[in-house]
Predict the 3D structure of the following.
Amino acid sequence: DITLRSLHTDTDIYIYAEWEDPTMSITRGKGAWEYQAVDENTLRSARTSTPPVIDGDASDKVWETALPLEINLEFGTNPGDITLRSLHNDTHIFTQAQWNDPTFSMSRNSWEWNEGSGSWDTLEGLEDMVNLMWDMDTVGFDTVGCMVKCHIGKDWSYLDVPGDVSDLWHIMASRSMPATEATQVSTPTVVDFEATSGEFQLLGYADDTNVVYDPNGGQFPTGGRTGDEGTAPYALNTNASGESPMYLERAPSDWLDAMVLQQEEVDRGETVVADPADPGFSASDVADAWAAYVALDAVVPMSIVTPPSDSRADIESGSSWKDGLWTVETVRPLVTGFEDDVQFDDLAKTYYFGVSTMNNTAGKGHNYVTRPLKLDFRNDFMHLEEGSEDRIVLLWEITPIEGFAAAGCFVKCHPEYGTAGAFLENEGELGDMWHMKSARSLPSTGSSQSDDPNIDENHQATSGTFSFHGFEDDKLLTYDEEPHVGDGGRHGDEGSSSWFANKNPDGTKPLYVERAPEDYVDAMVLTEDEIEAGEALEVATAKATDLADAAFIYDLFGAIIPENVLRDPEGSRGDLEQAAVWSDGIWSTEIRRALVTDNEDDVQFDDFAKSYRFSVALMDNSGGEDHSTPGTDTLLLSLYVPAVAYKIEVGPIEDSSGEPIEGARVVLQRNLGFALEGNTSANGTFSIIVPPEWTDSTIFSNVTKDGFQDLSFAGTIDDVGSFSPMDGTYPPMLKEGESIGEETTPGPVFTITLLAMLGALVVTGLVRRSSR
């Protein structure tokens, strides 16, 4: 059942509605957002429309939109934490790794001239590295991660099962990171050919390799590690005998320039030949070049770096080391098309991987974790599959609508056309829809809760008290031509609506999330005012950690992120002001609108002698396809103004000389029954309040005073409060005894004041539920 009441003033009409609803629903589930928390040991790759620059610069704001995965590499020679982030777009995946390393190490087996022996020595130093190993088809990877390739006591990595394969991204400080460019940003402090302070930027590649089954069980160099198809990002800088480097840089500009030798520098003639067997060898040139290395506290690199080719060139990298912090970024196509690569071709899938770091060491000294890690591409936000909002709809005839008198709002229903199925059958017919939408229009001005509600698993309140203030959504219903698409014959009134969609252009995320909602209803309602006040996060640029913190608060309240941002409507669409309360299963709402709006898309209540037909429908957490309605009913707007009370004033009562008579007794009697009485005051007046039921009653007056004669009379009060004497005149009421029979001036008149007026109309109907 629904109960309706209506009031009006000279300018406005008011509608009150009350009905039972066990749940307060403002979810709009198919548009509202739910945050998808990241599973333990999982790296979430966040979708981005703005790819990061792969340069090792962690200040690129887009990385903040990716939630970090912090991993404790608890085993190895230098255990410590590493932080991973990932982004992706339609074509590429981007990764970032950051970890602390007190030294910048890239002297892997480098050459140093030994003056005493007159020969070249190779150093024991190695290089810094980070490795990502991806499961392609490896038994046990989902249990122990990249530990599947490790075998205690064996020098080389391999897999145990024939046919197993993993993809290894090997990002090395001396052999791959600087393959394209190496820049010394600031002057370093160098100890034993390692930098302990300073800043460096390296642009290059990861060495893209595989780990496979090795029938020799890791007895021979490389074991089960094989390079992808194509050329590597490095070649050995050694002569045929292996006793000297092939090249030295002629005049390195700084320490890093000396420590990195690029094939491009060789091709440009920036090197000298160090191989005595080469016809271009010059001992003096080598000596001069080596002196430059010594001055820079540098050594000659063992490798010559160059961009790789084919499948081995899939992964570009940008890296930096600054005062003890490594930042390594990579970019790779999601799908490379090469059989030796993991293919990120199913963004609904989880991909297992492992990570390790090396601090100036080789594989035996790496830092690692003995569990699998996971990468997923899930959106941080998803729409709920179910749920909508509570609604009440009043549909009014603007023009006569065929069939409306018998079927009410059923005349607009054409379920075979889905959401486009609301339209009128005949061209020229018009209806005015007053649409209370508890999630999209009702709370646009304000919302609050007064106690701790109970929230169910569907984010609906099952107890509590909530107050809302906003607007109805004012729409025009018309005829609609085929093919009946979109909203069919429903059109918003002229002006702007009370909401706009809280979703980004590609529909994958909300635009805004409230930063720290105070309670359930504050979380469920997001307004433009809150955004302008800085109370919401802009999802596209917000830090992923801030979004996760906000989502945690939403989860505490049992709330979800709303589908829409609310605002005040404008124009004709803002005609209908509304307030409502839901309290422990009861909705009560009040609507106010001008009787006459002068808008062509509104019904005009401009004739009180006319009846205005309307229909009413309820929706309990549902869309328009499932609502309850009684069909049609008729609202007769007539001027019905029962008084709360009447104030009757008598006097002044005077004697023959015109002096007021004090203390005269006045008795007013209704229909010779119930009586009210009192005495005149010093100025001869008397006033008394009579109840509204005295309307249309006969009122007998009886006024007496010692020494005076009573000339009482009778009259009536009509339904608007006017008093009329029965004989049409007001006769004298009191005359002094000795003056009886003398001609006198007519006595005082009754004055009746209407104290208050209240218009009331109650329409109660049985609501039939129909699912269409």
Notes: The first strand starts at residue 2 and ends at 8.
